[in-house]
Specification:
Layout lengths: L2 H14 L10 E5 L7 E6 L7 H14 L8 E6 L2 E12 L5 H18 L16 E2 L1 H11 L3 E6 L4 E2 L4 E13 L2
Parallel strand pairs: 2-3, 4-8
Antiparallel strand pairs: 1-2, 4-6, 5-7
């Protein structure tokens, strides 16, 4: 884009990030959007608990109807597009863990992986992002650092390389096995 695109993006980024649960680094722009030259779209990656439909309505009203846009600007704000994935995580736990510890470990691993895919905020792993590579080897390291009972972890997917979208889990299965 041009310098004016950058300036406009920074102004719109500031306006959009005034809404609770929207941070400046969770907004991406697409210029010359499908509505033609001079139009732009902003895609927002909302916090997991945000009331997305209400926020989108409020943000678009704020920018378009309340006059918070530049002369001749046509900016529309959307939720970050999603692509769904199914994931199976197999965890081998260390020998000697009791039944309760194994059940807790399985639940914690499920919550941790879900947190990485922005489904909860129970833990703070590295999160999925647009225009990036979600690294399962990094997730593996984070799981090992978080839970001492883990011996090894396998994933049914390779790293996820995103563009202007975010991966969302349609299903997550956490299998748990004792190390041999």
């Amino acid at each position: 884009g041009t310098a004016s695109d950058f300036h406009t993006d920074s102004v719109y980024r500031a306006l959009i990030s005034e809404f609770p649960g929207v941070t400046v680094d969770a907004i991406w722009f697409e210029h010359d959007a499908p509505r033609g030259p001079g139009t732009a779209n902003a895609f927002v990656l909302f916090d997991f608990a945000a009331p997305v439909a209400q926020y989108l309505e409020d943000i678009n009203t704020y920018i378009t109807d309340d006059g918070n846009h530049g002369h001749g600007d046509d900016l529309q704000v959307f939720q970050m597009p999603e692509q769904t994935v199914s994931l199976v995580v197999t965890v081998w736990h260390k020998k000697g863990l009791g039944c309760d510890a194994v059940t807790t470990l399985q639940a914690n691993v499920r919550d941790f992986v879900n947190a990485a895919f922005r489904e909860n905020s129970e833990f703070s792993p590295t999160l999925t992002l647009p225009f990036s590579r979600f690294s399962f080897s990094n997730l593996d390291r984070e799981l090992h650092n978080q839970f001492t009972g883990i011996h090894s972890v396998d994933y049914s997917l390779d790293d996820i390389v995103t563009e202007l979208w975010i991966p969302r889990l349609t299903s997550l299965i956490v299998n748990i096995q004792e190390t041999e």
